[in-house]
Amino acid sequence: MAGKEDLKLLGLLVSPFVIRVRMALSMKGLNYEYVEEDLFNKSELLIKLNPVHKKVPVLIHNGKPICESLVILQYVDELFAGRAILPTDPYERATARFWAAYIEDKLCPAWIGILKAKAEEERAEKVKETLAAIEHVEVAFAKCSNGNAFFGGDSIGYLDIVLGSFLFWFEALRRMYGLEIINTSKTPLLAAWAERFGGSVEAKEVVPEADKAVQYANKLHAAAAAAAAAVKLVSSE
Ligand SMILES: N[C@@H](CCC(=O)N[C@@H](CS)C(=O)NCC(=O)O)C(=O)O
């Protein structure tokens, strides 16, 4: 099936959620058209195809949209032959889904909260939540990898993509706030895994430099500051 499908991806180069999809498409050997969205000025196509969340990624397969990165990963894995992304064993598959949900529900809002925090106290709280969540993921790595290099065994799989897509943002947070979310003393297994993930062909193909994330974070902060200043101006009139 690979190569004959009409695949288009609405994305953002620094979005970890988009990176997940790009890694999966590349692992399946699929060609696709990539369209960069401006999230400060969303396209009509994005709003039409993802009217609920209005977020990227949106994969358009033969004209039909699929939204939400984890849903897209599973869709791509179920539909296209080639290298498996999710584990094939039902128990391992369920376990991988459990940890993906944990990463989405706990780790993701916590680290994004560090970036979006408006005050130091709020940021410190989000740092605490992030570090607590990542310690659980360290335990998950020990169980899922079973002594192998990756969550998925000896090669990159579903959870590697799900968590690995955050790593360049973790590096950006280190540069911006001096934070070490994954470190050799508290999360040694993840620290070694992160090195392997970063050095992999799969990651090198689509993961941008942390600089790009820092630049985007600065853009987000500037937009938030301008919005807050505008609200202040209106309320003082
Ligand atoms: N749960 C979604 C998250 C997607 C997401 O947050 N995308 C961001 C870019 S990193 C976005 O499109 N934000 C636009 C907005 O919030 O309006 C997924 O896994 O696809």
Could you explain how this protein is built, in words?
This protein is α+β, with helices and mostly antiparallel strands. It folds into 2 domains: 7-79, Glutaredoxin (3-Layer(aba) Sandwich); 90-212, Glutathione S-transferase Yfyf (Class Pi), Chain A, domain 2, CATH 1.20.1050.10. 61% of the residues lie in helices and 7% in strands. The protein has helices at 16-27, 44-49, 69-79, 90-116, 120-145, 158-164, 167-177, 188-199, 201-206, 210-236, and strands at 7-11, 33-36, 58-61, 64-67. The protein has a 4-stranded mixed beta sheet, with helices on one face. A hairpin with a 2-residue loop joins strand 3 (58-61) and strand 4 (64-67). Helix 4 runs parallel beside helix 6 (158-164). The model has no long low-confidence stretch (mean pLDDT 96). The structure holds glutathione. Glutathione (GSH) binds next to helix 3.
